[in-house]
Amino acid sequence: MEEKNATLKDIAQRAGTSVTTVYRVLNNKEGVGDELRQRILDISKELGYTVNYAASSLSKKATNILFVFPKRDETWKYFAESIYNGYLQYKEEISRFNITFTEYFYDYNTEALSSLLENIFNDRNIKVDGMLIYPIRSRSIINLLNRFAGKGIPMVLLDKDLSDVERLTCVKPNDELSGKLSGELMSKWVHKTGKVLIADNDITVQEPGLSIDENSGGFEETIQRKRSDLITERIQISYKDNLLYDYMKDRLEKDKSIVGIYCTSARNTVPVAKAVYELNLQEKITVIGSEVFDENIKMLQSGVIDALIYKNPFRIGYESLKILFNHVLKGDEVKKRYNITPKIILESNAQFLADSY
C-alpha cells in the first residue's frame, strides 16, 4: 500500500487545534502563540508534511514579479549579462508556479530610469507583488523607489544597495572583501616602492555624495597596513568616450612612479588594460582587474592583467529572484543584505570559469 501523505487535518487533530490555525502556522501567518506554533511545526515535521507551493500557487491568482534592468549596450557583456542570465536560470526553475513576469529594460541613465519608474507607478493596470531592480545611485531614483515601497511592494535591489530605500533586501558583491583581496595581492606582487592607482567607481551615472567606496576603501586599508611604502591614488574618470583610456595612457607615459593599478569595476578594467598593453608596460606595472569575460581572459593570458576579482554576477541574479520568490510565495524571512563572496581569478582558472556558464 502507498503511504498516505499527511494533511492539514491530520496535523490539526494531533495538535488539538483547527485546520485554519495549522494553515496559518505553515504559511507563516501571524496570530498564533509561540508554544502552539512550535507544536504544530514539530508535528508537521514528524508526519513528513511538506507544503505543495506549486499546487497552492495554481489555485490562486497569478503572482506578478516586476523586473527592471538596463538595456544591452557595449559594456553589457562585462557584468550585467551574467546577472541577467542568473535571473533567467532561476526564472526557468520556477516556471511550474503560477507566476507572471513584467520586464522592463531601460537606457542606463537616471533620466530614463526615472521616467520608466514614474510610468510604472502611475499605471493602474500593472499589478506588482514583488520587484527586482538594478538601480542607479540617484536621489530621484531613491524617492521613486520609496513610493513603490510605500505601497507595501517587497523590493530586491540587484548589485547596488541604496540604504535610504525601504527595500526588502539587496544582493550584491562583498565589495570590501574584493578590495582587501586585491590589496593583499598587490602588496605581495609589487616589490618596489611607488604609486598604485585605483580606477574607482562607475561615476558615469551616479550623483555626488552617493558614491560607495567599500571596494577602494578595503584596498587602501590593506595597502596601508601591509605596504606603507606604497602610495594609493583614486582615479574617478568615466570609461565612456575613451576618457579613462586617454587619461591612463597619458598618465602612464608621464608618471614613471606608477607600479600598480587596481580596477574596481569591469567597465574600468578594459580601458586600463588597453592602455598598459599599448604602452608595453606589463613587465613594469601590476594590474588587478574585475570580472571574467573574453577581453579580460586574453589580457590575463598575455600577462597584461595579473589577476581578476570575480564578483559572481550570475549568482547575484539567481539569488535575488530566489530570495524574492521564497519571500512572496512562502513567507520566508529575509536578511537586510546578502553579500556574495568574490573569488581570485588567475590565468589557470579563468577559462575554466568562463566555460562553466
Describe the structure concisely.
By secondary structure, the protein is of the alpha/beta class. It has helices spanning 8-15, 19-26, 34-46, 53-58, 80-93, 110-122, 139-150, 175-189, 214-226, 243-254, 266-278, 294-301, 313-330, 347-355, and strands at residues 63-70, 99-106, 130-133, 155-158, 169-173, 194-199, 230-235, 258-263, 286-290, 307-310, 338-340, 343-345. It has three domains: 8-51, 434 Repressor (Amino-terminal Domain) (Orthogonal Bundle), CATH 1.10.260; 60-172 and 313-340, Response regulator (Rossmann fold, 3-Layer(aba) Sandwich); 175-310, Rossmann fold (3-Layer(aba) Sandwich).
Task: Describe the protein.
The chain is α/β, with parallel strands linked by helices and 357 residues long. It has three domains: 8-51, Orthogonal Bundle (434 Repressor (Amino-terminal Domain)), CATH 1.10.260; 60-172 and 313-340, Response regulator (Rossmann fold, 3-Layer(aba) Sandwich), CATH 3.40.50; 175-310, Response regulator (Rossmann fold, 3-Layer(aba) Sandwich). Helix content is 45%, strand content 17%. It is built from 14 helices and twelve strands. The chain has a six-stranded parallel β-sheet, with helices on both faces. Strands 7-6-8-9-10-12 form a six-stranded mixed β-sheet, with helices on both faces. Strand 9, helix 12 and strand 10 form a beta-alpha-beta unit. The longest helix has 18 residues, at 313-330. It is elongated and about 80 Å long.
